[in-house]
Design goal:
Elements (H helix, E strand, L loop, with lengths): L23 H17 L5 E3 L23 H10 L4 E5 L6 E6 L2 H11 L7 E3 L5 E6 L15 E4 L4 E4 L6 E2 L14 H7 L31 H12 L6 H15 L6 H12 L10 H20 L3 H21 L1 E2 L5 E4 L2 H8 L3 H15 L2 E3 L9 E4 L57 H14 L2 E2 H8 L4 H14 L4 E3 L2 E3 L4 H9 L3 E2 L2 E7 L5 E7 L2 E2 L1 H47 L19 H13 L8 H10 L9 H15 L1
Antiparallel strand pairs: 1-2, 2-7, 3-5, 3-6, 4-5, 4-8, 9-10, 10-12, 11-12, 13-15, 14-15, 16-19, 17-18
Helix pairs in contact: 1-2, 5-6, 5-7, 6-7, 8-9, 9-10, 9-11, 10-11, 13-14, 16-17, 16-19, 17-19, 18-19
């Protein structure tokens, strides 16, 4: 049922909708006039493309709906630049409304069956035939549909909608040209907040587990968006690129939906899920406890000991190790947690150089008990080992409110870092999407640390941010980090608290694409005679993403050189053994011994032949990612892939790996 908007209450919106048959020139005039009329009514707006995405231009529109404006001169300039732009309006506190987005009219009937008939309010027909119902803004309404029926979404704080006369959007009959907006019923708000009301028949249905199989049950037309979103969330486990996620979701859409969604809509669902942290598999309790203890120690160090550029490097190195342990950690027999990662990969994840990581490793061992495990094979990446979480490395558990008070501390001078109160506590480091920035990048490590705090702890005042960072004066934290980030659109200030914008992940990626650097720097080198020579070189002008790609290429080149040294060492070892065998045979001939060394029956000892060593070195060049596999796997592979005419034993392969390591060392 479409309510009569004329009897609604609240602020009014919208001009007369334009006809879809208007000439292009008339349509452009209509769009500009409508945009200016929105500004006159006090509604901020911004231009959008035909696919609903906001226009983007450096220095003009860089932050989507957050750049919405009510300035007539700016609106005129924007629509002169993009005459055919649709009109976007942010929802929430800025516009004073939230929107009930009904894609399925059957779901609307189901909603009214549960809570009663909706009040008369402003209604807009969308290009797909759905409806937008406008209600006065209510605190706590975001873009979460809560317990609403499938086929109904919400656009509240942090979202936006297109408004008439954008292409295909028109005020519904009965709403008039200046339809008013009603207040949302309490039962509707409860449903949006996630409180499931009872049906009129007193029954409720529990959600069924979603199947991600292409051969799964059919997906009804009324629940396509919700089902595909749930499937995308299950598929997004960290192993899919965005393109792969789109392709897999499209396969499910085509195979299981009798009436499949448009491919663009499927791609939109995949994009909305892919920027979120991937789902994680259940891990043993011991790993969760160790990672939790490491996080507690992390925040204690950030507040009390990690200062300046050096402290920020230690902070990000420790963060990268904790995140790696949370994702890939395995339990050792001694109760410690271990995961494989090369020093280069850790440095890259932390946004620091390999030499810097080498310098901070002793401090990590001293402060947290985290250490490197010795390499098991020549091609082993090495491993990080974390304490079990029950020993001295554990830090005190945080409480629920930020404070710098020291009245209740057993140790004077120690700052207690405490999370903002929230229903679920603070976010885990492994789930954070804020990347570790490099020191002199546009974000830099100082701002990056503040963004991480805002993501982990949620909305925070300047005093709370200063407490977490260990900054004595809150105004210093605001001057150095909070205000610059707010001016850049990376933080949003509301009611004295700072929080992240809804498109935080996109902004982080955009910042990683901004080039920086340039100028000259002094490089000092030492000659063979022992003299120090200084000369200047030009700094590279590159973005963080480009620098990461460059460092990865360098690492791959270094790894190939290292593996080539392995092969050369194996061949040299084989030639040395051949020379030794010939010498022994010649010696036996001189002593008139029957037979030769080659004809003797081998003893039952794991002695690898030079042939095995050389074959293993060559196979490592082909499969470097399998360098940590079991010797038994390598034994089978060497035989199956024709590196050897026979299958060696696992013990022979294990000893061969050890010989390669000695040869390289």
């Amino acid at each position: 049922m479409i309510p009569d908007a004329a009897t609604g209450r609240g602020p009014s919106f919208f001009t007369n909708p334009s006809s879809p048959t208007l000439p292009a020139r008339s349509l452009r005039k209509t769009l500009l006039r409508a945009a200016l009329d929105h500004a006159r009514r006090g509604t901020p707006i911004f231009p959008c493309k035909q696919d609903k995405a906001p226009y983007w231009a450096t220095g003009v529109l860089e932050h989507g709906h957050l750049d919405a404006t009510k300035e007539r001169s700016r609106i005129t300039a924007l629509w002169n630049r993009w005459p055919d732009a649709n009109i976007g309006m942010p929802t929430g506190e800025r516009s004073g409304v939230f929107v009930l987005d009904v894609d399925d009219l059957g779901a609307l009937a189901e909603l009214e069956d549960a809570i009663g008939e909706l009040p008369a309010t402003r209604a807009v027909r969308t290009p797909s035939g759905g409806l937008h119902f406008y209600f006065s803004h209510a605190e706590g309404v975001t873009n979460s549909s809560g317990a609403l029926p499938a086929g109904i979404d919400v656009r509240g704080e942090g979202g936006y909608v297109l408004v008439p006369p954008s292409g295909g959007y028109r005020s519904e009959a009965g709403g008039g040209t200046t339809g008013a907006v009603a207040h949302a019923p309490e039962r509707l708000l409860e449903l949006i907040m996630g409180k499931e009301p009872k049906r009129k028949n007193g029954s409720g249905s529990d959600p069924q587990p979603v199947s991600i199989d292409v051969a799964g049950p059919p997906i009804p037309e009324r629940g396509r968006n919700v089902a595909l979103t749930a499937i995308a969330g299950r598929l997004h486990d960290g192993s899919h690129t965005l393109k792969e996620l789109e392709e897999d979701l499209e396969s499910v859409n085509r195979a299981r939906c009798p009436h499949p969604l448009d491919r663009k809509e499927v791609a939109k669902i995949a994009r909305s899920i892919h920027w979120r942290p991937p789902c994680s598999r259940a891990r043993p309790e011991e790993i969760e406890r160790a990672v939790g203890a490491a996080e507690e120690r992390f925040w204690e160090l950030v507040a009390n000991e990690l200062r300046g550029l050096g402290g920020q490097s230690v902070r990000d190195a420790l963060r990268a190790i904790i995140e790696g342990a949370a994702r890939y950690g395995r339990l050792r027999t001694d109760g410690r947690i271990e995961y494989d990662q090369s020093l280069f990969e850790t440095a890259l994840a932390a946004g620091i150089s390999r030499p810097t990581l080498d310098r901070v490793r002793p401090l990590l061992l001293e402060k947290t008990g985290i250490r490197r495990a010795p390499r098991r094979t020549p091609t082993d990446a090495g491993a990080w080992v974390l304490p079990s979480g029950t020993g001295e490395a554990c830090a005190p558990t945080f409480t629920t409110h930020a404070s710098t008070s020291r009245r209740n501390l057993e140790e004077p001078g120690v700052r207690v870092v405490k999370a903002c109160a929230s229903p679920t506590g603070r976010r885990r480091l492994a789930d954070a999407v804020t990347p570790c920035s490099r020191h002199f990048s546009p974000t830099n490590k100082g701002k990056g640390g503040v963004l991480l705090i805002a993501e982990v702890f949620g909305d925070m005042s300047r005093e709370e941010v200063a407490s977490v960072l260990g900054i004595e004066r809150a105004r210093d934290a605001e001057r150095r980090y909070l205000r610059p980030l707010e001016e850049e659109g990376r933080l949003v200030r509301s009611g004295g608290c700072y929080s992240l914008p809804a498109d935080h992940a996109r902004r982080c990626e955009e910042a990683r694409q901004i080039p920086y650097g340039g100028g000259e720097r002094i490089v000092r080198t030492r000659t063979s005679e022992g003299r120090t020579v200084s000369h200047t070189v030009e700094r590279d002008v590159m973005s963080e993403a480009e620098r990461d790609a460059r460092d990865k290429r360098r690492y791959e080149e270094q790894r190939k050189v290292y593996l080539a040294r392995l092969v050369a060492s194996a061949r040299a070892l084989a030639e040395e053994n051949d020379d030794c065998r010939e010498l022994l045979n010649a010696w036996d001939e001189e002593r008139e011994v029957d037979g030769t060394i080659a004809e003797l029956t081998p003893v039952a000892e794991p002695c690898p032949t030079p042939e095995i060593v050389e074959a293993l070195a060559a196979a490592l060049l082909r499969w470097p990612d399998h360098r940590n596999d079991y010797p038994s796997w390598w034994a089978s592979t060497l035989f199956v892939e024709d590196y050897l005419p026979y299958k060696p034993t696992g013990e022979q392969v294990e000893v061969a790996l050890a010989e390669l390591q000695e040869a390289v060392a």
